[in-house]
UniProtKB/TrEMBL annotation:
Keyword NAD: no
Protein's UniProt keywords contain Repeat: no
Example of a GO MF term: serine-type exopeptidase activity
Name of this protein: Uncharacterized protein
Organism, as annotated: Medioppia subpectinata
Amino acid sequence: MNTEQFALYLTKKLSLEGNKWVVFGGSYAGNLAAWFREKYPNIAIGAIASSAPVNLVVNFKNYLGVIIEVLGKECSDNIRKAYMEMENLLKTPEGVIKLRKILNLCDNFDGKTVNDNRWLAEEMMWDIAVAVQSNSNISGVINTMNNPSGGTPLERYAKLQTWTYINDSFTCNYVNYTQIAILKNTTINPHKIGRQWMYQTCTEFGYFQTSDALDYAFGHYFPVEYYAQQCADIFGPQFTLQSIQKAVDRTNAYYGGLKPNVTNVVFPNGSLDPWHSLGILKDLNNSTKAVMIENYSHVQDMWASSPSDTQSLKNAHKLIEQQIGEYLK
């Protein structure tokens, strides 16, 4: 509705009556682009929905599944060993002391609180997940984890550490589940969207990137129940796993999930992108096309063209250009 009013306002203000709109979006905005074309075909003649995870799921356990595939067996096995090493260290006070030293954790971390351990395990996961999703230094992750001279698997993992809670108050990484309280802050701040996005995941989308699959390398520290608990702790006890599932089902029913009632849309996805497993990977009809870009990741087709572009990316750009031309005829 907001986008509809924005388009109508600009059409009137810029005297664009009779002109055609083509909407573009990547990631969640890719969903919005496809959904806008679906719900307001009288305004948008077409849409480019890059890396759009339109198939909403509560338990997005395959996010880590794609990451494991991208990294390969040896690297994944070493990640698994690192998490097992952490799990063993958490069993004794001496082990916790050693863990604090390896990961530069503050002394408040004692390994006795389940949610603190889950918070730590999830933050560690993002060190690798962000590298794959952004297609930045994936080879560096693999080389570091597969290099035995870098120490134990956990010590190698620590070298990848990009998250940090060090600030003016701490010279160590402060890991505590109570940090979730920041998302309870309702003060209006245009620079912070964490609370708003969390609310959408709890009420519409799910998308919880869990460690629930039995064969994944990241242990089992952040199951789907952990994220449901976050929804309840932030927004109230009325949020349960069951209520979140019903909300996601409603959103899928409204927009169509993997079968939206839509024409004139291109759905580009990258083969390295963990989100592509929730995207549309096959043409839906003659005017709604899917294209897979090999060895690229999240929304990389939206970057400017470069001489170094692979043929797969060039083909995707050509398809998008051709389709837009068809829309505008």
